[in-house]
């Protein structure tokens, strides 16, 4: 099958530095210890899953925060107080609806982009503000190490992690990931992940954009130290199923490594918001073109029809399709409270096997965009 010559990128910059017998997801509430009349939600164990072979448990859906503070790919190239307030709303609404797993990275909100703010800094600020109101609030944080060519050795991982912790204002994070495989020195990076676990700086470790071979190598290297590889974060959606075609999904299932799906709604293409007459703005418009969106319409129409049977939106159907694949945690990016609430409604119910298969069949007729090139290294 021919593939379009577009590229999607899971971070801000590269070169310069995600049955009808359904049940509703209703988080239990308890009275908050902090002052105020509102209550803080508490997640039941049923709403969480173990991340790979680690002891870490996270919600079945997380929130990606790549766009927070960014002005090089998202936000129409500008970041302002209005967008800051919206991001804070996305954070609080996620927690209010039982979603407490947030994924960031040191390169999100690049310091080399004038006017941008570090996503880690913003997430850390939101966590502190939340805990001032709800001292018992629980937030699971995942961040990532940038395998830049000039970074060498295991100590570079620890140094970068400590810098991330400073920006987050935390003493440790729940999940630390290698954002992409390095051009060289990957053994040292993996050793650095192991050191981070042994130093108590992280609860679990993972990789991102790793091919099947690199995934297996990472799993075995960490296994020798008795440390499980918890996750592999890759581009995966109904219309981008490269992890299935390259063996990454099967390897994750075999090894007990959780697949975390970034761009799970194809950067908005699966929401139904965009049409050939109304394509996305900015760099996404060069990826999800009018021609591509035209070919996507029959699938979007069917997704909408299925969603109506469940009183669900196309976005929720697309995310639920991923969850139905098993061993997958989607992390859609939430820019505001409305999106966050919608994402939370993607779990707690299940598409039928026939619906899952039908959507897969229809999606197979669409030539996918090309993902981040290092997936194939």
Automatic annotation (TrEMBL):
Tell me which positions the record assigns to the signal sequence: none
Q: At the top level of its lineage, which domain of life is listed?
A: Eukaryota
The record's section on Gene3D superfamilies has: NADP-dependent oxidoreductase domain
A cellular-component GO term for this protein: chloroplast
GO molecular-function terms, A-Z: oxidoreductase activity
Q: Does the keyword Chloroplast apply?
A: yes
**SUPFAM superfamilies registered for this protein in UniProt:** NAD(P)-linked oxidoreductase (SSF51430)
Q: What are the entry keywords?
A: Chloroplast, NADP, Oxidoreductase, Plastid, Transit peptide
Primary location recorded for the protein, binned into one broad class: plastid
Q: Where in the cell is it found?
A: Plastid, Chloroplast
Q: Which Pfam families match?
A: Aldo_ket_red
Q: Which residues are in the NADP-dependent oxidoreductase domain?
A: 60-362
Quote the PANTHER family the UniProt record gives.
Answer: AFLATOXIN B1 ALDEHYDE REDUCTASE (PTHR43625), OS07G0143000 PROTEIN (PTHR43625:SF88)
Task: Report the protein name in the record.
Answer: NADP-dependent oxidoreductase domain-containing protein
Whose protein is this, by species?
Eutrema salsugineum (Saltwater cress)
